[in-house]
């Protein structure tokens, strides 16, 4: 629990970090790089210099993204300590570890070589909190079943079994994302409810709604039954949200599920065109989350600003990763800039 003095200290750091976030113009300049060498040179002229300078040639999207994520983990860890070890901040930090576990389990399912899986992850976030063992054991497991058995030790054995069963039934690799995300958002919901700061309910609540709504929509697209959809839902939501989820789950089609949102405060994000409706809605919702995080900075030294800055850092790293991929693949600057989430 953060003391008033710690909260002020962390709040000051939040504003300091926010002032150094990249602008749309900065990202535009990066997106216009001719190749990864030029992109790395340009990134070295930003606050990411120390992180990006550690990368050895030849440069790849994967190497660059890992360096960016390691710096993000450093800043998040710093803010977590500055805020007195907040449960909410730790809940958000777990996303780094869960991301690595997703990559490992997907690799095991898809039969990727051990060396390839190892090249896709960094254990730096785990090292910062001295929690490498579980991830390492999952990494060196001979197959998915052994890796899943390891994860039962951290209390997600049931979710792993449900995930593997549904994956075998549907053969959709995104199922892994949904079950790991369920674990993440359930933990976040518990941390939010134990916090005495009401401002966190709107900040974290919108993210839990995002997970639940997107899970229902994807489940409808995959023709999951109502029982399977209920298993995906995170229960730590408001009574109003739970009623909305029940109606969406009972809807007889994806379109009908989306139409249930027309009676909620999310109605402005429902796409008119059914083609690509899920991805369009997801993009609109992510922008709403981004705007919600930015709006927290009207609160002077409120705890929500501390949460908001680590979320804004995540958006920035996602933007930089998208630009890196676009530069590597020779995708036009205008195309990638139209997809990133940033203030105009």
What do you see in this structure?
It comes from Candidatus Nitrosotenuis cloacae. The chain is an all-alpha fold. The protein has 3 domains: 1-86 and 302-326, Orthogonal Bundle (Topoisomerase I, Chain A, domain 4), CATH 1.10.132; 87-188, V-type ATP synthase subunit C fold (Up-down Bundle); 198-301, Up-down Bundle (V-type ATP synthase subunit C fold). 70% of the residues lie in helices and 0% in strands. It is built from 19 helices and no strands. It has helices at 4-19, 24-31, 36-43, 49-52, 61-82, 87-110, 114-119, 124-128, 133-140, 144-151, 157-170, 174-194, 199-221, 226-232, 239-250, 254-259, 277-295, 303-328, 333-337. Helix 5 packs antiparallel against helix 18 and helix 9 packs antiparallel against helix 10. The longest helix is centred in the C-terminal third of the chain and has 26 residues, at 303-328. The radius of gyration is 20 Å and the shape is globular.
């Amino acid at each position: 629990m953060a003391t008033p003095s710690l909260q002020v200290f962390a709040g000051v750091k939040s504003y300091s970090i926010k002032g150094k976030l990249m602008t749309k113009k900065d990202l535009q300049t990066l997106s216009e790089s001719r190749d990864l060498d030029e992109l790395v040179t340009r990134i070295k002229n930003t606050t990411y210099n120390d992180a990006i300078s550690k990368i050895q040639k030849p440069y790849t999207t994967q190497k660059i993204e890992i360096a960016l994520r390691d710096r993000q983990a450093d800043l998040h860890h710093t803010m977590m300590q500055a805020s007195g070890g907040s449960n909410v901040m730790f809940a958000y930090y777990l996303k780094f570890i869960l991301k690595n576990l997703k990559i490992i389990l997907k690799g095991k399912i898809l039969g990727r070589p051990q060396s390839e899986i190892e090249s896709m992850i960094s254990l730096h976030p785990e090292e910062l909190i001295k929690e490498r063992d579980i991830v390492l054991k999952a990494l060196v497991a001979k197959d998915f079943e052994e890796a899943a058995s390891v994860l039962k030790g951290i209390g997600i054995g049931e979710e792993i079994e449900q995930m593997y069963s549904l994956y075998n039934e549907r053969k959709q690799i995104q199922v892994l994302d949904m079950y790991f995300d369920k674990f993440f958002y359930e933990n976040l919901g518990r941390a939010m409810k134990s916090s005495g700061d009401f401002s966190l309910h709107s900040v974290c609540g919108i993210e839990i709604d995002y997970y639940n709504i997107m899970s229902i929509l994807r489940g409808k697209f995959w023709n999951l039954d109502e029982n399977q959809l209920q298993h995906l839902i995170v229960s730590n939501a408001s009574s109003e949200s739970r009623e909305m989820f029940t109606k969406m789950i009972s809807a007889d089609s994806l379109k009908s599920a989306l139409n249930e949102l027309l009676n909620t405060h999310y109605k402005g994000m429902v796409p008119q065109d059914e083609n690509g409706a899920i991805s369009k809605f997801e993009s609109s919702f992510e922008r709403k989350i981004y705007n919600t995080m930015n709006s927290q900075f009207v609160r002077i030294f409120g705890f929500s600003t501390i949460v908001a800055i680590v979320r804004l850092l995540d958006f920035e790293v996602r933007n930089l990763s998208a630009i890196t991929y676009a530069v590597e693949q020779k995708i036009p600057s205008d195309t990638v800039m139209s997809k990133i989430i940033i203030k105009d």
